[in-house]
Amino acid sequence: MAPGDLQEVLEALKPVGRSQPDLLIGLGAADDAAVWRITREVAIVETVDFFPPVVDDPWTWGAISAANSMSDVFAMGGEVLFALAVAGFPREMSKAIIAEVFRGGSDKVVEAGGVIAGGHTVVDNEPKYGLCVTGRVHPDRILIKGGLRRGDRLFLSKPLGTGVITTAATSHAASAEVLQGAVASMLRLNRAAAEVACETGARGATDITGFGLLGHAGEMVKASGAGLVIGASRLPLLQGARDLAEAGHWSGAMKRNRRHVDAVFGAGLRIDPSIPGYLVSLLTESETSGGLLFSVGPDRARGVIDLFRRRAEECWEIGEVISEPLIRVTA
Hints:
Layout: H1 3-10, E1 23-25, E2 34-37, E3 43-51, H2 58-75, E4 79-89, H3 95-111, E5 115-123, E6 128-137, E7 153-156, H4 162-170, H5 176-187, H6 191-199, E8 204-207, H7 212-224, E9 227-231, H8 241-246, H9 252-265, E10 269-271, H10 277-282, E11 292-296, H11 298-301, H12 304-310, E12 316-322, E13 327-330
Parallel strand pairs: 4-5, 9-13, 10-13
Antiparallel strand pairs: 1-2, 2-3, 3-6, 4-6, 7-11, 7-12, 8-11, 9-12
């Protein structure tokens, strides 16, 4: 659903659970996952996500969907314990294909340190697959969208462009090499990113998925009461994303996301007019299994990139946190 539509339909549920002191994060302070305190040192992180195929290969689809589902646990600073599969497949779909989807999801959960413990499957004309994921986090070390603080440095753990590339692939406009680059990015877990964020004392975090970079960054701004300055020239893009964006291979979510960000921020969204139109649109294009967006205090920020390199992964510093609650995208 579009961000604004989702907020509207959830309004009736927000009063539920306000009297539950152990519900640390729920609908009242919307975040990437729900968090329930078990003891003073243990809280459960719970999330669910699923979607139709984004690639043709069934194992890869299952693995990408699992990585995307688990990302919300990592965005809270948690570790994955186990997951339940949620799936719908056409009655005539080959059992061998379905088994490959399940195997891809299971392999990725095992890579994250967890296990598939069960699930539920229905007959559906459009195939869908995802996970309900249970994780664990210390109640005092939860990463939240509302954790931005003035002076923090802003980091992104994956390049942008999966949405425009997978959309282009549906019309065979993306080369095999470009699509493979996007697939590799979508398969990469945000586990290492969460570990680095926690190790460097990160305060605010979210993962970039369906609402695009500006949509999810906007959620952080609204929750924190602090703003963001994002340098367009600092943003990493997947190979081929620029060409496909310039050719207009947008998903339907891109325009919905842009309308929502414009409606929420109005004049508070300030984009330098010299930034090319394709790049502005990429900022609101939907991402699948995108990177972790997190902020770290200036005294710890210098070590972030080094810690990623030690884990043989990449990360980019893309901006900083300011006191005024707006989003400014500079050239």
